[in-house]
Structure prediction request, 243 residues.
Amino acid sequence: MAGATGVAKEKTALVEIILISFVILLLTVGTYSRNSVWNSQIDLQLDVVKKSPHKARPYTNLAFAYNNAGIYDKALETSQKAIQLDPKAAYAYYNMSIAYEKLGDLDKAIVMAKKALDNDPELDMVHYSLGGIYLEKRRYEEAAEEFRTLLKLFPYFSNAHHLLGIVYAGQRKFDQAVVEFENELKVDRYHTLAHLNLGQIYWYEFQNRERALYHLRVALMIDPLLPARNQVRALVRMIEGAS
Prediction:
């Protein structure tokens, strides 16, 4: 009975682990983009703004550079200037959505993303961002709809299948989650988190020892800096010892 209780607790925690993987991914992307390249881009765009202070596009480009450098308050300020000059500047609203999301104001991020789409329905990247915001808020149906919309247009869009898989896992639709994680590996066979999430689902939900070990071992092999590496290795040892 105690063993069964332990397994039940592990299965209950599965979705939380998958969602943590999503958060880790966001943090990794954010850290990677804050570098000297974007500092030089800011200097470049500041110069363009000085030369064209009455045009919206230079402010929009500057806000984009601020976002990528992690200077979100400046991104908001600059995007607002772009919108003052051109109220239909869809990309400026998109930049504001990104900044608000990074600052933790998800409701405002959603509002700005929708305004971006209202002004330019073909600004397809907004579906990716909006799906991620809905996922953070655990509004799974809306998140799934955004990712599916994007994937209809771009079936091989990097990381979109993975995030849709996380949505399905959050809904405990594990068969569909597996399909999406496997689809992500068709786009990028080195997608560490897709392997990690597949390994956990195959073990905790389907008790498929062989598939679980394969994906967990691949995740460990391709990413020496894998977050929670010790916990993953412990899980591998536990599965190896299971009869």
